[in-house]
Amino acid sequence: xxxTPPRTHRRLVQDRAERPAAVRASRIQDLKTGNDHDEAYxxxxxxxxxxxxxxxxxxxxxxxxxAAYAMAVAHSLGLSGEELTTVRIGAYLHDLGxxxxxxxxxxxxxxxxxxxxxxxxxxxxxxxxxxxxxxFPWDIRPIIRWHHERYDGSGYPDGLSGDAxxxxxxxxxxxxxxxxxxxxxxxxxxxxxxxxxxxxREDRQLWHPDVYRAFMxxxxxxxxxxx
Length: 227
Known about the structure:
By secondary structure, the chain is mostly helical. 58% of the residues lie in helices and 0% in strands. It has one domain: Hypothetical protein af1432 (Orthogonal Bundle). The protein contains twelve helices and no strands. It is globular, with a radius of gyration of 18 Å.
């Protein structure tokens, strides 16, 4: 990652205060069509993912793995073009709000208290707040805010349910849940992959049937029947 942000990123930050709306729209279109070094922008996002992970010593590589899993599910669902880029960027930055959570909570050994859990659960909203001054050319804010929402309405921070949860957020959410189960965290050991998949089968009501089926197809090679 370069020591200074790519020219693309500097422009996005400056646009809000210095450029008229028509010029901002032109700059965003350049990014969408690949005319302004998308790879440099993606490198910056990857670097931000590493900053996020540095807050929690148990989640090194988490953002990169979630991005890889989410992209596989998105491909299985038939997403393409800009939607795939949105999933990729959103996956890298889904936990951005954790930089605002005290490290002693993120790295606490053992079970979190109710108060500590509530602080952890602020990270989707904090992540969106941290990006308020940046005009991304991809609609990643729904992913960041709603990747912990669940299809049956049991998620957070807004208690959304069903199709009120954007499919991009659901894709990143199921990828995030799988990686959380299969990697060691401060509060528990990693679960073997097959056990994690079995647990997710038990909890399939948490996911849109199509997203759950695509995920299981990717990770088991067999399309799963959804009861």
